[in-house]
Amino acid sequence: MRNNRFIQAAPEGFLGSEQIKSVYAGRRGFMAGAFAAAMAGATAARAQSSKDDPNIVNLPAHTKGLGQGVAARGYGVPSIYEKNLQRRESPGLTAVSASGVSFAPLQGLFGIVTPSGLHFERHHQGWWDIEPDKHRLMVNGSDEKMLKKPMVFTMDDLMRLPSVSRFHFIECGANTGMEWGNAAVPTVQYTHGMVSCSEFTGVPLRLLLEMCGADFKRGKFVLAEGADGSSMTRTIPMSLIMNDEVLVAYGMNGEMLRPENGYPLRLVVPGVQGVSWVKYLRRIELGDEAYGTKDETIHYIDLLPSGMHRQYSSTQEVKSVITTPSGGQVLLDKGFLNVTGLAWSGRGKIKKVDISVDGGRNWKAARLEGQVMSKCLTRFNMDWSWDGKPALLMSRATDERGHVQPTYAENRKVRGTRSIYHNNSIQTWLLQESGEVKNVQLS
Amino acid sequence: MFSYRKFTAAVLALSSLSVFAQGSKIEGVGRTATANEVAAWDIDVRPDFKGLPKGAGSVAMGEKVWEAQCSSCHGSFGENNTVFSALVGYTTKKDVETGRVASLMPEAATPTRTTMMKVSQLSTLWDYINRAMPWTAPKSLKPDEVYAVTAYLLNIANVVPDNFTLSDKNMAETQNKLPNRNGMMTKHAMWPGKEFGGIAKPDTQGSSCMANCVTDAKVASLLPEHARNAHGNLAEQTRGFGPSVGADTTKPAANSSAEVKKAVATPAPVTKTAEKSSEATGSLKSADVSGILSKNACSACHGIDNKIVGPSFKEIVAKQGNKPDAVAYLTGKIKSGGSGVYGSMPMPAQSLSDADAKKVALWISQGAVK
Questions:
Q1: What is the b/e burial string over B256-275, where b = at least 16 CB atoms within 10 angstroms of the residue's CB?
Q2: Which superfamily does B56-175 belong to?
Q3: Which of A215, A231, A329 sits opposite B244 (nearest CB)?
Q4: Which of A89, A332, A364, B191 shows its CA 20 to 30 Å from the CA of A339?
């Protein structure tokens, strides 16, 4: 069947942009045209297995010609065939893109690392590409006695210090927020795409505070502040700083941070919602009181059924989602399918992920793939054979603290439907007979 | 002044550096910040008003600054929600007395949440306007202008009178008038630490059941049909090869209601809920839902035959009534709101119970019979 799909528009030379377009158009038409026809095609391909595949017997140009030289592209970019995977906005979510969100295409990603160019974005007042030579980090106290001396660090200074590199997820507190009321958006990109995962390199914040002679007896809270127009501020939990978990980071996936992610310096606050990972970090203040910033008394507060708001709700709780099959996808055939997805918890490691294909009646433990790290995405897989009948697929994660991901009903019972933030409910995908997967919520 | 206690703390703190610096003191990295440098960047204002500069600004002065620099996004009275969420609205004199905003209660069914409904600290308004406003020219306002704009905001929200002047002297006093000053709580498990008197145990916990689990596996909410292509053609948002491809959402999908039923062919034991008993069955007439319609102010915007702000119920019947998943779709739309189906005027999310929403949806799907 796959062979069939590649028969059309098999190019004889390098593909021009028009040709690529026609390949895409042809393939789309093929896929969309009739799923039944595709199924029939698959059957035909199997039945006629004695027929030679032209992709094999007709040697393609890349086998018979000379390819391109080294450093043709000084900084490599993805294949031209990968252009469908883009970070995208959700129409109507925000009116101005400088105060908007773009979602990572989780449906097309493998393993646990998010390619830096596909990392989700959330900007409050636009992004900048800041000249690193001119960037400074200041550490001061809320009063003159909080530190022995307030200090200023250049990027040169910070990159001389002992560094650590750690894999962590970052998730916006409002990830899956559009789904609190009902199923609202079509794909996993929009339901869960405000989570990404990278290897971050930087200096533990505690080290910098200690270099300043911090009074940790009086200093109970830390304020982080950005250098951009919004000068984002958030109160950072002291416990995570004293554990050496909070990093002043400049590296991301082996390179410097991307501008959209805070180049040249951002805070990394593992397990805590993304708004606290202040980008373009310019200042750290140690203080004896919490700061009640805009994103602590107006936004990023969780409205409860009682009419009260939860303030300083920071931890991203245990959560998971199946990425294949997921909303908006069309399965090409019955039979074997690797069901795969991502799980994470802001309280530590993922201990277990269970998968149900019958709407939550029966569950089976999934395989956790590769390294399972604390406050990091964990990839899970499960062998499955689709019989072509409708199925309700769900994943349910448990973290090392024993916290089990709740259902929508369980979450809504306590948190209502108006919270916006901290929706870690179990996601359900309806796999229809047509092969198309639909976003649904169970009662 | 030298403090032995602090000195000891510093030594203890430094000793823990060993992990990173093998016990050696880090020297020659970074430098002491000058007083001017700290003053230039240390602009935060805390809830106890530490950091607040001296100054004052009147409502009248604020109105001038507002018209010139704020109203284009926020509207003359902070009511505009087309660029950002509205700043002002849905707070009352009573809220100013109690410090709790009544329109935040679920039964109030307030169509939006304004800044003034939520903000609990006056310091936040001052700090944020000072650091980030106006949006395209942040940090351009002088302290007196920040006081003035803050005063104007409080005035259009009926928190302070027209002749009011806000200053560093009366910020604390004015804090005691903020409508939602008592509306925050920190007793939860989502702050890693004990600073806010939080609790260790999360407020929700899923089940670990593995087989024959008690579940009411009914599809309560389906992605509405119009939302399938609302984010663009999904075929162009997924890799063109692999175990699956993206659906071409420019073309209609197969109807899914039959599949939904088949997916849960064998119903599991169902937990009886309180809502169950009130769940609607049979054919409904307007009298059956009129209580719900008036209690939730549906009738304010929708007539049975006539368009008011939103479409008439008959118009909804014409568009959705014949669809097999109409009840699920309409239930979802009532609960979550939306716009664009019948015009650009948005309908806010409604906070009526699931059972009530479903009852109204059922009534509409049956033709909105009088």
A1: beebbeebbeeebeeeeeee
A2: Cytochrome c-like domain (1.10.760.10)
A3: A329
A4: A89
Are residues A331 and A424 located together in one domain of the fold?
yes
Please compute, for residue A439, the number of CA atoms within 13 A of its CA located in the half-sphere on the CB side: 29
Q: What is the residue type of B224?
A: P
Q: Report the gap between the CA of B290 and the closest CA in chain A (Å).
A: 23
A298 and A340 both lie in a single domain: no
Name the phi and psi angles at B124, rounded to 5.
Answer: -65, -45
Residue A74 is assigned to a structural domain of this protein? no
Complex prediction ipTM: 0.88
What DSSP string runs through B225-271? Answer: GGGTTTTS-GGGGS-SSSSEEE--TTSPPPP-HHHHHHHT-SPPPPP
Nearest CA in chain A to B337: A181
- Decide which of A16, A39, A64 is a domain's last residue: A64
Question: Is A117 strand, coil or helix?
Answer: helix
pTM: 0.80
Asked if A313 contacts A355 with a C-beta cutoff of 8 angstroms, the reply is no
Residue with tokens 């890799």: B239
Do A221 and A330 belong to one domain?
no
> Does B161 contact chain A (CB < 8 Å)?
no
Q: Are residues A115 and A55 in the same domain?
A: no
Residues of B in contact with A360 (CB under 8 A): 213, 215, 217
Tokens encoding B159: 């928190």
Confidence of residue B11 (pLDDT cuts 50, 70, 90): very low
CA distance A260 to A87: 12
Domains B56-175 and B256-267+279-338+350-370 share a fold: yes
C-alpha A430/C-alpha A390 separation (Å) is: 7
How many domains does chain A divide into? 3
The domain ranges of chain B are: 56-175, 256-267+279-338+350-370
Q: How far apart are CA B309 and CA A126, in angstroms?
A: 35
A334 and A305 assigned to the same domain: no
Q: Do A246 and A368 fall into the same domain? A: no
Is the confidence at residue B10, as pLDDT, over 90?
no
A contacts of B105 (beta carbons < 8 Å):
307
Determine the Cα–Cα distance for residues A339 and A238; give it in Å rounded to an integer. Answer: 39
Partners of residue A329 on adjacent β-strands? B246
Query: What do you get for the CA distance between the two ends of chain B, in Å?
Result: 83
- Among A82, A297, A347, the residue to mutate for chain B (most B Cβ within 10 A): A297
Q: What is the pLDDT of residue B348?
A: 63
Instruction: Please tell me the least confidently modeled range out of A67-76, A351-360, B39-48, B303-312.
Output: B303-312
The average pLDDT across B224-242 equals 94
Nearest Cα residue to A144 out of B10, B52, B38: B38
How far from each other are the two terminal CA atoms of chain A, in whole angstroms?
38
Size (chain A), residues: 443
CA atoms of B227 and B337, how far apart (whole Å):
13
Residue A229: helix, strand or coil by DSSP? Answer: coil
Question: What pLDDT sits at residue A203?
Answer: 98
CATH code for position A170: 3.90.420.10
A–B: how many Cβ contacts below 8 A? 432
Structural domain including A352 reads: 319-440
CATH of B256-267+279-338+350-370, one of 3.10.20.90, 3.50.30.40, 1.10.760.10, 2.60.40.420: 1.10.760.10
Residues of B in contact with A294 (CB under 8 A): 124, 127-128, 132
- A214 in Cβ contact with A146 (< 8 Å): yes
User: For residue A415, what is the enclosing H or E element?
Assistant: helix A408-415
